[in-house]
Amino acid sequence: MTNPNMKKPIDFPSGVTLFPSQDQAIDRILNELKQKCPAQFVLLAEVSGQIISALGERGEINLVALGSLVAGDLAASQEIARLTDQYQNYQLILREGPKTNTFISEAGPHLVLFVRVDRETPLGWARLIIREASRQLSEVVLTPPEEVAKLDLGLDDEKLSAMFSEGLDGIWKR
Asked: Is the pLDDT of residue 173 over 70?
């Protein structure tokens, strides 16, 4: 007999299934991303555009339409990158606006992440955090649900500081 309070797995059109342990890990990563970036709005969708999660100020945005457009935008950008021999994992699209900047990031083969930050947020910092969150989100989805608790997840200050230092060091080595 199953527990009626237990959340059921969620199946998405792309073939990915999210189990409760994965869903909890995703929530943790997105909340830390929103806080550490800081992000005004975060949307996670699977590659067909179906919404998985949305956090923050969304105003009058139609999430269903936004999810579809973000997924389509990423798919088009991935294909452009392939045609121009520029493709790499965790593609990132940046749009600079008058008040905010938006990022669309590939989070593995099944997810797409949309993040809106204030124009004053340093682009390099936002990119670093979004890229790491995207990598972790992909890892969560690709890990069997019973193994998710063993993953080293989170955007803790020590990990971010080390990544920032590595990024600065990389500037001087090129």
From this structure: no
